[in-house]
Amino acid sequence: MTILDKILAEKEKEVAELKQHYQPGSIQGKRVDVSLYDTFMKADKMSIIAEIKRASPSKGLINDGIVPSEQGRLYEACGAGAISVLTDTPFFQGTIQDMQEVREAVEVPVLNKDFIIDDIQIDRAYDAGANLILLIGAALPEERLAALYRYADQKGLEILFEVHNEEELQTAKRIGAQIIGVNNRNLKTFDVDLAITEQLAAQIDTEKTLLISESGMKTAADVERAKKAGARGILVGETMMRSGDLQETFQALQIPLGE
C-alpha cells in the first residue's frame, strides 16, 4: 500500500462517520467573497498560498504548538495571497476547526486542504468558510473527480485541481480546471522533484489557467524555476511552518513576475 492508499482508506471511514454525524449547514462559518484565481492572475509578484500543517506522513511532527488563528494572521500580515489549512487528522493532525479559526481571523482566500472523496466533505468545507477545496488527480477515477468538481463549483467554491503526471493533467483539462496545482511531491512515495512543474507546465495554457507549483519550495532559486515554467503561485507548507522569521521567508520567495 502506498501512503496515499493508506490515507484514502482512512478517509473512507471518516466520510462514513461524517455522514452519520454531520448535518450540512450545522456550521455557520464566516464567508469572505474573494477569488484566488482573480487575485493571483492580477498579481505582479509570485503569490504564496501559505500552509498550516502540524505534521505530515513523511516528516512526522513539523510544528504542533501552532495556534491556527495566530499563524493565519501572521501569514496575512506577511503578504500571503491565500492560506491553506490541512484538516486531515490521522496523518496531518489538523481539524476543520483549525480552518474555521483561520477563516475568522483573515480576509484572504482560504483553502480546505484535505483528501476529498465525497460531497459531504465539500458541504463541510463550504459551511466552515472555505473559498477553495482541493481535488487530487491521483486519488479518484476521472468520473468521480468530475462530479465532485461540479458539485463544488455549483456551491460557489473554487477548486485547486492537483496533478503530478501527464495523465492527471489531461484529466484536469477535460474537467475544465481553471486552477491547476502541480505537486512536485509524488503522493505514493512522498519524493519531491521540482522538475515535475517544468515538465507539466509546458502543456498548460498559463494565460488562461492559473498554475500553482506545490511542494519543495525553499529558496528564491526554487521559486525562480517555478516562475520560468509559468507558475503565478506557489504553495508553501513546511518552509513556512519551520521558519524562524516569516517576514524574511516571504520576502525571499515573493519574487517579481514578468521580465
In the CATH scheme, the class would be Alpha Beta
Oligomerization: single chain
Distance between the termini: 45 Å
Query: Order of strands across the widest beta sheet?
Result: 1-4-5-6-7-8-9-10
Describe the structure.
There is one protein chain. Helix 3 crosses helix 4 (96-105) and helix 8 runs parallel beside helix 9 (220-229). Strand 6 (132-136), helix 6 and strand 7 (158-163) form a beta-alpha-beta unit. An 8-stranded parallel barrel has the order 1-4-5-6-7-8-9-10, surrounded by 8 helices. The protein has 259 residues and is an alpha/beta fold. The chain contains 11 helices and 10 strands. The chain has one domain (3-253): TIM Barrel. The radius of gyration is 17 Å and the shape is globular. It is 42% helix and 17% strand.
Keywords:
259 residues; alpha/beta; TIM Barrel; eight-stranded parallel β-barrel; two-stranded antiparallel sheet
Short description:
This protein is of the alpha/beta class. 42% of the residues lie in helices and 17% in strands. It has an 8-stranded parallel β-barrel, surrounded by 8 helices. Strands 2-3 form a two-stranded antiparallel sheet.
